[in-house]
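User: I'm writing a short report section on ligand binding and want a predicted complex to refer to. Could you take this sequence and pyridoxal-5'-phosphate and write out the structure as tokens? A short remark afterwards would be nice.
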Amino acid sequence: MTAYSYAAELETYEQANPRSAARFAAAQEVLAGGNSRLTAYFAPFPFYVDRAAGGMLYDIDGNARLDFYNNATSLILGHANPQVTAALIAQAEKGTAYANPTQPEVELAALLTQRIPSVERLRFTNSGTEGVALAIQAARAYTGKPKIAKVEGAYHGTSDAVSISVGTDLSRAGAADAPQPVPSSGGVTAHTLADVVILPFNNPAAARRIIAQHQDELAAVILEPVLAGIGYVPADTEFLEAVREACDGEHTLLIYDEVQTFRMSPGGMQEAVGIIPDMTCLGKIIGGGLAVGAMGGRAEVMTVFDATQGSPVIPHGGTFNANPMTMQAGLATMRQLTPEVYDRINEHGTILRHQLDEIARHYHAPLSVTGTASFFGLQCTDQPIRDYRSAQGQDPVLRQKLFLHFLNHGIYIANKNVGNVSAIMGRDELERFVAVWEGFIQKLN
Ligand SMILES: Cc1ncc(COP(=O)(O)O)c(C=O)c1O
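Assistant: Sure. The structure tokens for the complex follow:
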């Protein structure tokens, strides 16, 4: 066998995607960095989608790829779901946005509050980023305290307060059980940094200690109950219990960011584990493929937005918040998400991870698979991954080769080598995925 190089994978990709290469070159002349969204970029250039249907993406060079990314987990029913499309067409004919509340807004809120244990009242936004920023603001307003705690390695969108210790440079991040906040973006002020405390994931003792240390100042702890950025590693029950108890003792609100994990069950991860936060952030699937976010919580906390009794504590606006297109697409999606659908995608996720793992073991490959429910992470290590630090140190070239190998064999995953299963996918799609993984491992041997 010829040596398996990154250059070979790159060349195959470049040869199959000349139109996308040209489009990206043109894009760089008019868009900063060539796009509007970091995750839409990967080296050497992203492919440009012409159309999508069900589980497939079709690009402008005529390549067809199975979509195991699903617009960053948001398309839980796959692309162009007929009921969602019909709902959008019907709404478009009635107008796309008004400066008034609408019936579908109330209906989607009713559905979500009924399903999510912690959410008695909610508000819609246009992105998960906004939902998170608003939840943090609400926690600060409600408690009168300035600081928040977040988990090392957790991504909560791009607002200032959470652009800290996401992709952390560990040389500046302190001890594993007492992580220091490190900006993950330019433009984060020292003041913002000083208001953020970092918790190590899945370390209950450290979490208790750090929350107690900052008790007088801590408005909220925000966490993803499954740490997506390191390959969908779930929080241990003991960790969630410890954080819940520590918050209870300190008049600190616990916020779950369920922007992604809400695709795990009708009531999200909180329902699955039975450890309930005070507030929840949402996004992705609840918009049925359109831009969306939301945050909600106990009715008492959410009174900070109430304008019926005079000026609200938080005057929250937004031209396109809860616009009827998003609400209709969200409703058409959420109504199709019966418990059976969740069971099916979660079972498919479990089967996929199991088969990938078996193949890696069979070939004694230095690879492994993480994930839970419909999520998976392909790891270029065979060491256990429990938190941000144990996920570091993987060979970056091998990780890129893996990503390009999948692309070159008709499968799209996120370029961090994570993905998810949608409801439109069946055993055939899973088998194709497994075969491409096996092909990659054979090339390594
Ligand atoms: C856990 C989590 N929180 C927040 C966000 C931000 O959502 P959005 O991209 O809609 O702003 C994301 C997006 O990927 C996310 O995964």
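A remark for your report: The pocket of pyridoxal-5'-phosphate is lined by residues 72, 127-129, 132, 155-157, 224, 228, 257, 259-260, 283, 293 (CB under 6 Å). The longest strand covers residues 218-223.
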